[in-house]
Amino acid sequence: MKVAPHPLFWLFFLALSAVFTGCKEDTDSPDPDVKKGKVALEFENVVGDSPLELNSVTPYSTPSNEDFKVTIFRYYISNIKLKRADGTEFIQPNSYYLLDQAREASLKFTIPDVPVGNYNSLTFTLGVDTTRNTGGAQTGALAISDMFWTWDTGYIFTKMEGSSTQAPNKALVFHIGGNSNRKVVSPAMNNRVIQVRESRTPGVHVRADVLRMFTGPEIILFSKTNNVMGGDDAVRVAKNQAAGMFTVSAVDTEYTE
């Protein structure tokens, strides 16, 4: 003989079902209160305290008193992150940028859909991540160009070419790439805060100093090291780049070009 469940059982069951259903809806639904803004990034390539000028009439000088001129200066940055003081991060998806001194427009871009808040840290990768680096022909900033070696070797993360009277054949070629030379960079903010709001777009000004490729943890002398396309010398240059090539020079509350 079957005994029917007590009426209180059904009341308990229905109440429990409502609780679990409510929890699932709260988890799956997007938060309608999240407001978003934009952040403008502007890069300035320099040589010490001077703006970088391609094919300059007057040569630049390294701390080792070697002269040089620059004809090409390009580099990839990717995987841009912004972090709040509480540790929460915004990571821009599929962020790959090729910055080229010969193309002024490439040195400025805007990051969309950044949650409103105050951010005190900027991080990006100098180079291209492993998956995309050897992923073959791609589009956008990663379209095949003279910044790409081969499908299994990948991209040139930084390309600097020029000349120096100290180099044996006067030419300088620095092509830095390879997964081991990809560097994550977090330039010091020096207590600056990136204030993201719906109503205005803050601007972050970043300097990239060519000189820091040749000085820092490793001293690069053009008389000895002047044609780099991989190997130990590329590792040395990449180490210098990570140690201080990039700095945040200013943060604007509202960006204006």
UniProtKB/TrEMBL annotation:
The protein, known as: Copper-binding protein MbnP-like domain-containing protein
Stretches assigned to the Copper-binding protein MbnP-like domain: 37-226
Transmembrane annotation, as ranges: none
Keyword Calcium appears in the UniProt entry: no
Entries under Pfam families matching the protein: MbnP
Species assigned in the record: Hymenobacter volaticus
PROSITE patterns noted in UniProt: PROKAR_LIPOPROTEIN
Signal sequence segment: 1-17
Keyword terms of this UniProt record: Signal
